[in-house]
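User: Can you recover a sequence for this backbone? Please restate the input before giving your answer.

Assistant: Of course. Working from this structure:
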């Protein structure tokens, strides 16, 4: 018998959290509800298998942004749906920047929430709340421009300056390196790096490419290594022609 998907709700508005929990349980999901960030981190980092997190931003003591960023930096890549009353474009952008998969503003339509949950759970067939395994051993190091990356030790630097990369950023960089000079579609990157269906609507790919540019390009607005091909995807070039 297939185990029920486990959803973690992090919401400090008790009545709202209880209502969401009730409706998700009615759909057959296993649901845990907590009202603060530190408790959510303990649950994920413990022995619990979380298939999806629904995360409020305005939480006591630790913001949802901090919760999401902490998990992504530690290598946890279960889908995260931000559910917040913050509706400004900069709020949404920041949410994607820290690693959220989708962003839904309050008040929301219940059917839309359930649809997004169902969609996102397709990204987590095995309960991806544990850090991913280390990269393959067929290419341990990457050098391009002034950059050096060791995929075994997770060391990265530009010149003599260390660069901090999340596990997902390293995975994306590794996929680019393994497919150098080939234009790779967003659909392929979602499928191969994020384990997402290609039809999922998310800006994760664009946001993560932007992070790699900020980390490694001399001029992120005029990239030489991480190139965009309009309506086609991205191409990585270790040694640009000029």
């Amino acid at each position: 018998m297939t185990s029920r998907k486990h959803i973690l709700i992090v919401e400090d508005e008790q009545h709202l959290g209880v209502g969401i929990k009730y409706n998700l349980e009615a759909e057959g999901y296993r649901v845990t509800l907590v009202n603060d960030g530190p408790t959510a981190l303990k649950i994920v980092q413990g022995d619990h298998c979380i298939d999806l997190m629904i995360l409020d931003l305005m939480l006591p003591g630790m913001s949802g942004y901090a919760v999401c960023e902490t998990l992504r930096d530690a290598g946890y890549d279960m889908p995260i749906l931000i559910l917040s009353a913050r509706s400004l474009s900069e709020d949404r952008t920041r949410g994607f920047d820290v690693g959220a998969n989708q962003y839904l503003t309050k008040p929301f339509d219940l059917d839309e929430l359930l649809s997004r949950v169902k969609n996102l759970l397709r990204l987590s067939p095995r309960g991806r709340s544990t850090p991913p395994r280390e990269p393959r051993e067929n290419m341990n190091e990457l050098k391009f421009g002034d950059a050096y990356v060791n995929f075994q030790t997770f060391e990265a630097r530009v010149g003599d300056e260390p660069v901090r990369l999340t596990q997902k950023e390293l995975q994306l960089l590794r996929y680019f390196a393994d497919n150098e000079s080939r234009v790779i579609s967003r659909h392929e990157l979602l499928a191969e790096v994020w384990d997402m269906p290609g039809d999922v609507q998310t800006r994760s790919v664009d946001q993560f490419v932007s992070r790699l540019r900020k980390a490694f390009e001399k001029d992120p607005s005029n990239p030489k290594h991480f190139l965009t091909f309009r309506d086609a995807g991205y191409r990585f070039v270790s040694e640009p022609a000029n």
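That completes the design. The longest strand covers residues 6-10.
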